[in-house]
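ugh ok so i messed up the first submission bc i forgot one of the chains. this is the corrected input, ALL of the components this time, i swear. 895 residues overall. if the numbers dont match what u have on ur side tell me asap before i send this to the collaborators (the ones from the other lab, u know who)
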Amino acid sequence: MSEDRGALEAERDFLLSSLDDLDRELEAGDISDEDHAELRDGYVARTAEVLRLLEADRVEPLHRIRLGWKTVAGVGAVVVLLGAALAFVLANALGERLSGQSMTGLDPRDTVTALLAEARAANFADPAGAADIYALVLVEDPTNIEALTYRGWTLALAARQNPDEAAGADQFAEAVDLLVEAVTVDPSYPDPLCFLGIIQYRFVGDGEAARPFVAACLAANPPAEVKDLVQNLADELGVGS
Amino acid sequence: MSAALGNAGLLVTLVASSVGALATAVAIIGGNRRALRQAPIYAAIIVGGATLAVIAMQWALFARDYSIDFVQRVGSSTTPTLYNVAAMWSALEGSILLWVIVLALFTGGGALRFVRRRDDELVAWALVVMYVVMTFFALVSFGPASPFAPGATVPVGFDGPGPNPLLQNHVLVLFHPPLLYLGYVGFTVPFAFAIAALITGRVGEGWLLETRRWALFSWGLLTIGILLGGWWSYEVLGWSGVWAWDPVENASLLPWLTGTAYIHSVLVQQRRGMLRVWNLSLLVATFALTILGTFLTRSGVINSVHAFAAGEIDGYLLGFFGIVVVISLGLIGWRGDALRAPGRIDSPISREGAFLANNVVFALFAFIVLLGTVFPLLVEVFQDRQTVVGAPYFDRLSMPIGLILLFLMAVAPVLPWRTASAGTLRDRLFWPAWCGVAALAVAVAVGADRLAPLVAFMLGGFAGGAAGRQLVLATRRQGLRGLVGRANGGMLVHIGVILIAVALAASNSYTHSATLTIERGERVEWAGHSFEFVGVSTEVTARADVVMADVLLDDSKVYAPAVTTYLQQGMTVPTPSVRSGFTSDVYLTIDGNDPPAIDADEIVLRVFVKPMVLWLWIGGAVMAIGTVLSALPSKRSRRPTDPTSAPMPEMQHG
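and heres the new structure output, hopefully the right one now
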């Protein structure tokens, strides 16, 4: 027996059993009288078609799908419009992903992520405030590379603005310690290297001490905004020329 | 000893499944009936091997067998027995082992269910597919994700850290992952029959009947698993929400969406013989998405594609996903002619038209979630830039889709097959429409505002009315038996979904939250509730220190949000305390991760008042009951599969 004939026989059995099911479902109240009549007509017609094919012992496709140009154009237009709408919403919801952050959703459980976002917003406008927020991140995650680096950097900036010289010196020492720790945690992360270079040259005035940090910073391909900070300094020190 | 037994169990599983697949395929092709009749025996061996491996792992965790690397990482003498059991699925290797045992049980169940028809070609090929899938997971578990790999030598007195603290502070951890896996893996059975139908050319409706209950059962378990995940998130994580569009959550939602589309469109194929290619594609998509979901959640890819190198099974899962998709699509293309439908949709205003619309919307929803989930990966691969797709993308797009689905849920059950007259629609939609108006009026009367939730409440009432109408008609004819059967059980599932949709709309739209600083003995009033900070109490065990802030709520009962410090991990986890009610929950959690001092003069609390959250869980229970009822035959008991598929004829002895 051919494979197609086997399939037709299975189809015939299915249709016959479905006719039984249909009567049972009517009795059980699953379907209405109208539905029962409509479906029964359909099953009977399909069963007759299958029986006819079986008797003729031949198999032919029952229907061919023909798509007119209007259908194709209509579906195409819907797909294009939908794609444009999706792209628009997607573009509006897209943001920068940080180390350790998952790739979708705004995970409210991730307090570190929320704190980092808050700290970044305050980075330049309020260095002391940002430093405090980074400290909270470090309570949650003591080796968070971004928090170590940017608490160090914002503390160094805050130290220069601190009117209390002794307190400023303490802040400065803590800033350097944090940046050094950040380099220890991840030597390939360029930002603390860059900031140590800037601190050594601009804040301490020690060009020789700054030179290896600046060279390592540029070699590690820092982000554009950090590179801008360090590029003039590199030119002055003759690093990378 | 445990490692040796476990490895032996996995090896037996691997050998039995691979030999079973090969031997059964050869027997079918060669027409060797005697060999074919032995095919189910491999399933029994697979169940035995996988069970042995799981028992060995549980014993290793129970006995703290630190010669095993996995136990070193998730075992601890301080972990309570309950969570020690759950420790098996708290890390990659154990969760793959859970997959192995669940798949083994489904394979064994499938072989047992069809044992009398084991020489039927359709059943035999389905067994081959299940054995192939089993071989893959057994290979992964025996090889790169081995839970029995030996650990480094540990000093005398070593004790492991135990599972992640988040996985040992709520009993739902015991049920959520296994139920989710039962749902994922259960779709292997209908997938296997779909592939078998394509291979044998018996692509009519016979294989659908074989697998209807398997698909429904798996869908129901996946639904419950997802809901329990939301419940766990609500009860444990302290942010008061149930869904965050996290990639792990999305990975479970994707097969649920395609599976939901399938269990609807399969009715159209069964009734009208249409949507054959579509149904096969949905099953393939559902199964493939479970593999993709496992890849997304069990590799480092969620944090960064740069973590590819760190994962050990990523390549295996991606490769298997690719093979499944390519082979399935190839088979569908090969059988293209035979898959042409014998009927066509006469009118879009018909039951089948509504089902088709429902399927398009579900497929669109799945595409949107998939796009948002994998888009950051695509950006990183092509642009080397790390991006995140924020929740607003998912929220904005899922809201209109949810409303459309509610509308279809209201209209589809009352539509007749083939076509509907205006008079029929008017008659059948009259009471459901009034239910919608009543729901809107009640919502406005209790103070609801804003367009989207009001539309959700109205459509919820409309859809609830349609489902209620069907149940009333059925119970008038049959009494309580009218709740049983595919259509009527399905209406109960609809009512559960409507409850969940309305509860989500209410809780997302009308939640109030505040941070309250309350001094000891002080009574603060906010949002119609009073909060009095009574004091701090502690509970110290060998495993964890729990510090609780006792808060008298509404002068009636003390609630105790806590911060638990897990001593082995040195990790603090805030645990909320919730007063649940039929109208709203009051959700209390200590602000921040630091436990309050025992003599603290004040406490900082995050407080959420969330309406209708309890109805989420009630809706879930109604869905579960409805799923069970829809799987039961509506009147007389019969085996619907018996006459649908002919046994393999004219086989020759090899």
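quick check: Chain A touches chain B through 61 residues (CB under 8 Å). that seems consistent at least. The CA atoms of residues 64 and 71 of chain A lie 15 Å apart.
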